[in-house]
């Protein structure tokens, strides 16, 4: 009696052990089979990618040469540009193909020879294009037909066909290995399945315990299938969301461009308002001193200087914003970078300290000036974003001599190295490997298209140079553009530059200050303005020397006693017994509101008047803390009214008439103006 239950128990244990062993073996076999299939699929995908890319490269080269032929025959520059664009695309495809297949030593040798043939073919086609561009169509046509049978083209075709054949043989081997592995896995699975069925049949004989175990297994299988169904539904939802996200990214690219334009034009508007302030102030002061030839000439000269600077800035903006083909010219790189310093300052903001250093031994480069400026500005903006808008940026021009392939694929020779170094977050290795890929970006949606670095790379490669990248996470990034040195004796298009240019210090942190609505001051005619009988002692703080001189002259013309200060950090020492501080808002070393906050801690009753050239609604800007704001450019009438508003505001806050008009009527008019 006791042997029966004991036997069934042992049989149940043995069946369970065998079932577990069988199931574990099945899991291992199927898992290994899945892994082999995944590896085979990845290898096959890589092989197909190589074959497709090689065929695409051959087609791109053929289309480029066909476009060149049409350009030679018709002289249509659009066809010439199409040839140039397609040839650059072929170069990028060739680099990508080399990365996909260049792991074996024989492949690296093949692609090194292929690169040389491609460069030789490019040189041949460039001669044909240049002959066409300069009107030598007959010569260009003869060279074009001769070039159709050039050894470089035949070598490229044979090399690409060889890559395809090798990759197809490799694909066949991988496919055979995958099929063999699948067959072995299928055989093992069948054996284990038969063994499992035997175990199930034996388990049925054990009665309701085994039946119960099978029922539980079936229930678990149903739950797994339901989970798989839910996973599939979730995958579909994710795919749909990804498609919508890509569509939104495309829509945001245009918005990003407009945002970049807005950031740049904000700084440019500030510069123009400063210049217009000098012009208008000079003209008004000249009118007041029409009977004094010396003063008249001085003020007119100041106005002319402001107008000349505005015209120069306009010309620079027009040149910077153009969009046309490459126009190489001989350029002094140090002078070019120095000329961009003001544009960089306004674009990067006051939180970035920019240092421009030049040690290029008077070497020149032959490059499209506008494209090079765009590249440097793009690198500077990327550096600013990597530093979250605050840090040190160094732009350095040096003369270097490189060995063959010392940097990338550069040839041995003399180069001018333009390095842009930041103190930002740096890049991880996997990001640095892809930084020059088109449309690759680490910025969030709406802040980057991923085209800037690829355009920089393409420009330098077009000039026969190379791009160097030094970076590590948390230690900043240095991007260096190596441009071939131009032959000595050519005329330079840039003026000589100093060997070293001064750095622009970063602004100090903003101090806490009370928040009250600011009071913008209207610019009204002189006849409507009250005139104060008191001579005010005024400290004028302005970093632009021309605007500073113009403002001081205007205050003297109004009968006041101004003191000039070009650095907000020395304003506390220059304050003295001044009745009022007239300050610019945006200055490199410290902002006007931060400076005023410190002055008011010393002199709580000090009157304050801000002067700014930025657009916007100053009346709603909390940084002015309720003090009146005068917009640049301003007239003498507007300045006089703003002074009255500032002094009346102080009198109202102190409960005393610190700035009274000379008559009750004028005082009433002044109070109404505030």
Q: What does this protein structure show overall?
A:
With 674 residues, the protein is an alpha/beta fold. The chain folds into 3 domains: 15-192, Four Helix Bundle (Hemerythrin (Met), subunit A), CATH 1.20.120; 326-484, Heat Shock Protein 90 (2-Layer Sandwich), CATH 3.30.565; 519-673, Rossmann fold (3-Layer(aba) Sandwich). Helices cover 60% and strands 12% of the residues. The protein is built from 17 helices and 13 strands. The chain has helices at residues 3-74, 77-101, 105-133, 137-147, 151-204, 208-288, 293-321, 333-339, 341-348, 369-386, 429-432, 452-462, 545-557, 571-574, 592-602, 636-654, 664-673; strands at 328-331, 352-359, 365-368, 391-402, 413-422, 466-471, 477-484, 519-520, 537-541, 561-565, 580-584, 607-612, 628-631. The strands form 3 sheets. It has a 6-stranded parallel β-sheet with strand order 8-13-12-11-9-10, sandwiched between helices. A 5-stranded mixed β-sheet has the order 2-4-5-7-6, covered by helices on one side. Strand 9, helix 13 (545-557) and strand 10 (561-565) form a beta-alpha-beta unit. The longest helix has 81 residues, at 208-288. The protein is flat. Residues 489-533 and 656-674 have low confidence and may be disordered.
Reading off the top of the CATH hierarchy, the class of the largest domain is best stated as: Mainly Alpha
Helix content: 55-70%
Helical segment count: 17
Please name the CATH topology of the largest domain: Four Helix Bundle (Hemerythrin (Met), subunit A)
Class computed from helices, strands and strand pairing: alpha/beta
Helices and strands, in order, run as HHHHHHHEHHEEHEEHHEEEEHEHEHEEHH
Numbering strands along the chain, what is their spatial order in the largest sheet? 8-13-12-11-9-10
Overall, the morphology is flat
Average of per-residue pLDDT values = 75
Could you say what the CATH architecture of the largest domain is? Answer: Up-down Bundle
* Beta-strand share of residues: 5-15%
Number of domains: 3
Number of strands: 13
Rg, nearest Å: 38 Å
Distance between the termini: 113 Å
Uncertain ranges: 489-533, 656-674
**Main beta-sheet annotation:** 6 strands, parallel
